[in-house]
Amino acid sequence: xxxxxxxxxxxxxxxxxQACSSLSTIxxxxxxxxxxxxxxxxxxxEHSDHQKTSSETTIAEAKLTTPLNILPNTTVPLLIDVQxxxxxxxxxxxxxxxxxxxxxxxxxxxxxxxHIHPSYQHNGRFxxxxxxxxxxxxxxxxxxxxxxxxxxxxxxxxxVIGESPLDKPINFDRTKTFGKTHINLSSSQDHIxxxxxxxxxxxxxxxxxxxxITDLQPYLGEKGHLxxxxxxxxxxxxxxxxxxxxxSSSEGKVTFMTKFAKSGEYKLWGQxxxxxxxxxxxxxxxxxx
Length: 289
Fold this sequence. Notes:
The protein is mainly beta.
């Protein structure tokens, strides 16, 4: 009987080991600690000034669990576990911009972008499915707000197996067409400078009429969202800006106010809701010293 019990226990351990071997857990330990943001610090609603944050306001960090081998163009589940600095699960979160978590997924060459919203499971765990279109390295900016605390940003990393595509230069054209939406990007400064406030305006027109669009609806409670990432290796939290539209924008125009901490090349993605369909508009900008 003892031999039978031992055999059953050994079989159970082997089965559990095989089940867990298909997952890979990656924390943001190699990155700077997650940053915390005070959403009420700026009257314009822009909350991207990481330079004003302090490690004392960082109360949580995230760990990413993915399948062991991720293939291009394959939908895979991701698990994100949010823990306090003692490794204990953070259980309660507050809604901001209509969601408990915003997850910005970019390829490290900034050619791919996705803004998705993981669903909360329990005990600090979020789950979401992602399709990575190409091989290479990816960075995920996890944006969440533990209850009664400042908003936190954790930087997570993963990689898709295969040969990475050649790096493409950023396109700095200020006028582009996205489906049936023609967009011109303008700025309050001819030459954007680091550490100076700047307004960025998206002028949206319908391609059929060439008139300002009239079917713009709120996206996550606002006229639009803007994510900006500095071209860097590796990508870190200091390269990430998540801005929100000003209320004073006129018909067909959506304006954001932000500030760039460093000079360099940046890729930005503006997102707008045209009658229920999200238009994602990507542009490139130079920031000077």
